[in-house]
Specification:
Length: 98
């Protein structure tokens, strides 16, 4: 859309609910996404599910996010959205500690 993309994600563990929680907000929309998830030991990942608002229709749509930890210095975040009943990958960000 002709401007730099900026987003902020906060991930934590809710001790009361015994689940991971995640929020996401970026400069392409005005809403905040909230997700809940669980740890997948086999894939070294947190698998989140939730809903977000489709800015075109104003309706809630399903969203899924996976945060993988392939090694001690790498995280990969994949975000999946669903539009017209079809899921697609909307974003992938790789974080590397140096």
């Amino acid at each position: 859309m002709g401007m730099p993309f900026e987003g902020i994600s906060v991930t934590g563990y809710d001790n009361a609910k015994k689940i991971f929680v995640n929020s996401w907000i970026d400069n392409m929309g005005t809403g905040m996404m909230y997700l809940e998830g669980s740890w997948d030991d086999q894939n070294k990942s947190i698998n989140f599910k939730g809903k977000t608002v489709d800015p075109v229709t104003g309706n809630d749509i399903p969203v899924r996010e996976i945060i993988r930890f392939p090694d001690d210095n790498t995280q990969v975040m994949e975000m999946y959205m669903t539009a017209n009943g079809t899921e697609f990958k909307g974003m992938e960000i790789k974080f590397t500690r140096k």
